[in-house]
Amino acid sequence: MNRAGLLAACTAMLRRDLTLAWRRRGDIAMPVLYALIVTMLFPFALGPEDTLLQRIAGGVVLVTVLLAMLLALDAMFSSDIEDGSLEQLVMAPQPLALMLGMKILAHWITTALPLIVIAPLMAAMLHLPGAVIPVLLLALLLATPLLSLLGAVLVALTAGTRRSGMLLALMLLPLCVPAVIFAAGAVAAAQQGLPWLAPISWLAAALVLAVVLAPLACAAALRIALDA
Amino acid sequence: MSNWIPLWLHKLGSPPTFYRFAGTLQPWAMTLALLLGAIALYGGLVLAPADYQQGDAYRIIFIHVPSAEMSMFIYAVMGVAAFIALVWRIKLAEVVAMESAPIGAAFTFITLITGSLWGKPMWGTWWTWDARLTSELVLLFLYLGVIGLYHAFEDRRQGARAAAFLAIIGIINVPIVHFSVNWWNTLHQGSTINVFGQSKMSWDMLWPLLTMMLATKFYYAASLFRRVRTDLLALEGGKDWVRKIAEDEAKS
């Protein structure tokens, strides 16, 4: 397999998944609406005081984005399993890990990116100071791919089971603890006027590790789940 | 090629041999566990002196610390068994990994419960978001995830392989979680027992603790053997050796 062939396969994979997502645009809007509504519930539950909302804003946005991504995660491979195209992908001559990496990228673009776009709105709803929002966006830009990659491995593991939604949450959420800690830590530090680069660097390091390992793990998990 | 692995170890990997082997060892391990556990409890609850600061409340460590150690020890055993199961596809390793998970989850649960019982009089709160407590809680969820994934599959061997993979992901993640949580917040006291060098604990208190640690190991072995034997019978239901056991049982 030469390099040009691989590149063509990667673009084809990415284009296919993005086209499929675009044909069902309504599905893209769902996580976004979910995140907005959950954010709206917090002031109702905790009371509308500015100082309290300001203090929890960063954490609420992060956890809400995480939960919204969790809801969308289930769909990452489900349609491909139903129509059998995932099995074709497993048997294809191109390296499975690379192809799955492209699928994860497409999934991140269609679910996480819209969430990041509306994150400033969510932050503003909770009165997060404008100066902190760039740090929040940076933290989200690093944390969401991490969640997509980790989530993809676990979705692949549950590919052979029915009704995997709650199980997925049980498996994924403990593994996300570091991502949440570092992302929220960076936002909290920025809010207090402290240096926030250290937690961001940790997030970036974790992301680099995940980009290398997660597609390989995802391929291995898929082979186990499909018994291929 | 693989001569360095003794023959008996190869044979031990086969279900019928392990079934007999575990059946022989299981009562001994259980007896030792009960005996050592009783000695350790007597030593810890009666013989050991009260702590000058914490009074008698510290005595919960004779349960708490051995359970905490077992919760991590069993996860390590599960991880190694999971690795063997995935790489060499040994059925016995799958069974050992999957049957370790509930025992480990139970020890983790005991650790959390005894910890919070101790925390109420000492820290004045049942629960606090301290680094070690949180790591232990995450460990419990990892165990539950492995158990849940194992039971989500209809085919048990496929479920075992998937859950084994999750256990290995967890093992990579546990140090990261522990480190990040440490960075986040810490209240729990540092460790008192030091394998290398002087322990910060009097021998009167130390020996019951070490005895209890040994007792929990034997309990784990006994419990694991029993569970693995049951599971092997279920998995190998149609095989000759199982049929023979069933016939012998029916005769007697």
UniProtKB/TrEMBL annotation, chain A:
Membrane topology, as annotated: Multi-pass membrane protein
InterPro entries noted in UniProt: Cyt_c_biogenesis_CcmB, Cyt_c_CcmB_bac
Keywords, ordered alphabetically: Cell inner membrane, Cell membrane, Cytochrome c-type biogenesis, Membrane, Transmembrane, Transmembrane helix, Transport
Pfam families: CcmB
Main localization, broad class: membrane
Location in or out of the cell: Cell inner membrane
Segments crossing the lipid bilayer: 28-46, 52-73, 104-126, 132-155, 167-190, 202-226
PANTHER family according to UniProt: CYTOCHROME C BIOGENESIS B-RELATED, HEME EXPORTER PROTEIN B
Protein's job: Required for the export of heme to the periplasm for the biogenesis of c-type cytochromes.
Similarity comment: family membership: Belongs to the CcmB/CycW/HelB family.
UniProt-listed NCBIfam families: ccmB
Name listed for the protein in its UniProt record: Heme exporter protein B
Organism: Rhodanobacter panaciterrae
UniProtKB/TrEMBL annotation, chain B:
Spans through the membrane: 28-50, 70-88, 100-119, 131-150, 162-185, 205-225
Domain Cytochrome c assembly protein residues, every copy: 26-188
Source domain of life: Bacteria
Pfam family, one: Cytochrom_C_asm
Compartments (UniProt record): Cell inner membrane; Membrane
Keywords tagged on the record: Cell inner membrane, Cell membrane, Cytochrome c-type biogenesis, Membrane, Transmembrane, Transmembrane helix, Transport
Signal sequence bounds: none
Topological relation to the membrane, as annotated: Multi-pass membrane protein
UniProt KW Cell inner membrane keyword: yes
InterPro entries found in the cross-reference section: Cyt_c_assembly (IPR002541), Cyt_c_biogenesis_CcmC (IPR003557), Cyt_c_biogenesis_CcsA/CcmC (IPR045062)
Membership in a protein family: Belongs to the CcmC/CycZ/HelC family.
PANTHER family recorded: CYTOCHROME B_B6 PROTEIN-RELATED, HEME EXPORTER PROTEIN C
Function summary: Required for the export of heme to the periplasm for the biogenesis of c-type cytochromes.
Stated name of the protein: Heme exporter protein C
Lineage: Bacteria, Pseudomonadati, Pseudomonadota, Gammaproteobacteria, Lysobacterales
GN (gene name): ccmC
